[in-house]
Amino acid sequence: MKIDKKIIKELSDYLQEFNLTEIEITEKDTKIKVSKNNVSINNQPQVISPSLTTKKESSIANKNLNSGIEITSPIIGTAYHAPEPGAKKFVEIGKKIKKGDTIMIVEAMKTMNHVPSTSDGVVKEICVEDGQPVEFGQTIIILD
């Protein structure tokens, strides 16, 4: 059986164009189904727990960084400092935050994932720019 890549590409384009999560076609004895992964239920944002490390636990390459508590990105995506453009930022340098407060949003596959703080502290440094791509485990904020 030969799979026509044009059909798969066309179905993928339809997913994007019509904001679908899944599409399926059947022709004779061939059935092709294309779907997106990581879809949130009822358009509710997902909360993903970030990892927490202290500077002392970081690798030797990070030895020259300031001391403090690092909060890292729990997923790969695009970091946003506010819930929408022009809105008040979740955190700013010098702001006191509590464990569980949203510090940033990381968008992955059109899903806005709220990143909660894993510790109490004062924001010492914001390590990523608004709209910047982030990697899993990348430091996004440093707390005192």
Please describe what this structure looks like.
The structure is a single chain. A hairpin with a 2-residue loop joins strand 8 (102-108) and strand 9. The relative contact order is 0.19. The chain is 9% helix and 37% strand. The longest helix has 13 residues, at 5-17. The chain has one helix spanning 5-17; strands at residues 22-27, 30-35, 46-47, 52-54, 69-72, 77-80, 96-97, 102-108, 111-116, 121-126, 133-134, 139-143. It is elongated. It has a 5-stranded mixed sheet with strand order 3-9-8-6-11, with no helix packed on it. The chain has a 5-stranded antiparallel sheet with strand order 4-5-12-10-7, with no helix packed on it. It has 144 residues and is mainly β.
Attribute tags:
144 residues, OB fold (Dihydrolipoamide Acetyltransferase, E2P), 5-stranded antiparallel β-sheet, 1 helix, single chain, 5-stranded mixed β-sheet, elongated, 2 domains, mainly beta
List the helices and strands and how they pair.
Blueprint: H1 5-17, E1 22-27, E2 30-35, E3 46-47, E4 52-54, E5 69-72, E6 77-80, E7 96-97, E8 102-108, E9 111-116, E10 121-126, E11 133-134, E12 139-143
Parallel strand pairs: 3-9
Antiparallel strand pairs: 1-2, 4-5, 5-12, 6-8, 6-11, 7-10, 8-9, 10-12
Please tell me the total number of domains.
2
**Multimeric state:** single chain
Q: Quick one: CATH class of the largest domain? A: Mainly Beta
CATH topology of the largest domain: OB fold (Dihydrolipoamide Acetyltransferase, E2P)
- Strand residue percentage: 35-45%
In N-to-C order, the SSE pattern is HEEEEEEEEEEEE
Query: What structural class results from the helix and strand content?
Result: mainly beta
Number of strands: 12
CA-CA gap between termini: 60 Å
- Strand order of the biggest β-sheet: 3-9-8-6-11
Low-pLDDT sequence parts: 38-43, 49-66
Please name the CATH architecture of the largest domain: Beta Barrel
Major sheet details: 5 strands, mixed
Question: Helical amount among residues, as a percent range?
Answer: under 10%
User: What form results from the Cα inertia axes?
Assistant: elongated
CATH superfamily of the largest domain: RNA polymerase II/Efflux pump adaptor protein, barrel-sandwich hybrid domain
> How confident overall, as mean pLDDT?
78
